[in-house]
Amino acid sequence: MSSVTFILIYPIFLAFHISRVVIIRYGILLFGILFIKYLFDMVNMTLLRSL
Question: What is the rounded CA–CA span in Å between residue 20 and residue 26?
Fold first, then answer.
């Protein structure tokens, strides 16, 4: 999900003359945060299912 969002938002940010370095930095940060969130959600659902 976050990769698709980043791919769709990237050209819009470039249109507003935001630096590519800033876009990529925040994109990676967003990707990391969402990856950890999805990982914990998946672990929690797996543990609940095993009960």
Answer: 10
* Tokens of residue 20, six digits: 């590519």
Task: Write the CA distances from 7 to 2, 19, 31, 44, integer angstroms.
Answer: 9, 15, 12, 29
Joined tokens for residue 25: 């930095």
pLDDT digits (tens, 9 = 90+) for 9-47: 888 888 898 888 998 888 888 888 888 888 888 777 776
- For residue 28, the Cα-to-chain-centroid distance in whole angstroms is 7
| DSSP secondary structure, 13-29, as one string | HHHTT--HHHHHHHHHH
